[in-house]
């Protein structure tokens, strides 16, 4: 018992272990459903052209296809309202009015300027 420390008996160690197990079970989340990450690119490689192996018949997993399409959708189609502050700009925007080319305040056409080269004699 050097340094003022007492040795812990087996009952005390077992109580500490039981308390740790209870804490782990309280915060542990068990995942039973697994799927492919739709945010990661998938590289599908076809069979070799001279392969005699019959093609496998795979059943389509519609949950992955739906998740993949949802990831690729625009935010306006995914959510009813803007999620972030930057999405608020242009969320409810309609089309712009037609551009009037005769209005000199808004129309700045390019002017073609022909530079004539002068030769020094």
TrEMBL record:
<dbReference type="InterPro" id="IPR029214">
    <property type="entry name" value="CFAP144"/>
</dbReference>
<protein>
    <submittedName>
        <fullName>Cilia and flagella associated protein 144</fullName>
    </submittedName>
</protein>
<comment type="similarity">
    <text>Belongs to the CFAP144 family.</text>
</comment>
<keyword id="KW-0966">Cell projection</keyword>
<dbReference type="GO" id="GO:0097546">
    <property type="term" value="C:ciliary base"/>
</dbReference>
<keyword id="KW-0206">Cytoskeleton</keyword>
<keyword id="KW-0963">Cytoplasm</keyword>
<dbReference type="GO" id="GO:0005856">
    <property type="term" value="C:cytoskeleton"/>
</dbReference>
<dbReference type="Pfam" id="PF14886">
    <property type="entry name" value="FAM183"/>
</dbReference>
